[in-house]
Amino acid sequence: MSINIEYNKITIGEIVAADFRAAEIFKKEGIDFCCGGKKSLDSASNEKAIDPSLLMKQLKELKNIPVSQTQSFNDWELSFLADYIVNIHHKYVLKSLPELVFYTQKIASVHGLHHPELIEVADLFGKINAELLQHLKKEEEVLFPAIKVILNSNSSEAKATIISEISRMSGEHFNDGLF
């Protein structure tokens, strides 16, 4: 399966959504395709002082690499995708966060006297942890169930819930007073 994308006509977020393998290219170049995903390839390249034609070349080379059918997320049913996100990604985050919180706090308590920035890092990470846990819970208890309802009916209430949750959750990607 080959993916055909017109890179100069869509945002970097849309490029990654169309072919998740592009994320690795952007990560390697330090380009934020998540919160900064509404930028054009040219704009993102210019911000990082990268020749856009070099990025374009790397992205076009992805066409030569076959896409695994098991990773073709755009072809998955939405209900299955929601369950996949919960069972794979959410479980990983929920398993990993407590240990990360523990170690950021431990490092801050041991070394914070001589490196006060570590205390700030631990505090910020604690806030991020709380926000992320709330975000995951809302996806699992509100957004994903509403998506499943809309797949089985034309519920205007479910549509309103989905629109509201996506708008609210998109806003969480921008600062929210944490930084």
Which keywords apply here?
about 180 residues; mainly alpha; 2 domains; 7 helices; about 65% helix
Helix content: 55-70%
Report the portion of residues in β strands. under 5%
Largest sheet: none
The shape is: globular
Termini separation: 42 Å
Spans of at least 5 consecutive residues whose pLDDT stays below 50 are: none
SS element count, helices: 7
Order of helices and strands: HHHHHHH
pLDDT averaged residue by residue: 87
Rg measurement, Å: 19 Å
Structurally, the number of domains stands at 2
* Strand tally: 0
The secondary-structure class comes to mainly alpha
Give an account of the 3D structure.
The protein has 179 residues and is mainly alpha-helical. It folds into two domains: 7-70, no CATH class; 76-172, no CATH class. Helix content is 67%, strand content 0%. It contains seven helices and no strands. The protein has helices spanning 12-18, 22-29, 41-47, 52-61, 78-111, 116-152, 156-172. Helix 5 runs antiparallel to helix 6 and helix 6 (116-152) packs antiparallel against helix 7. The chain starts with 11 loop residues before the first helix and ends in a 7-residue tail after the last helix. The model has no long low-confidence stretch (mean pLDDT 87).
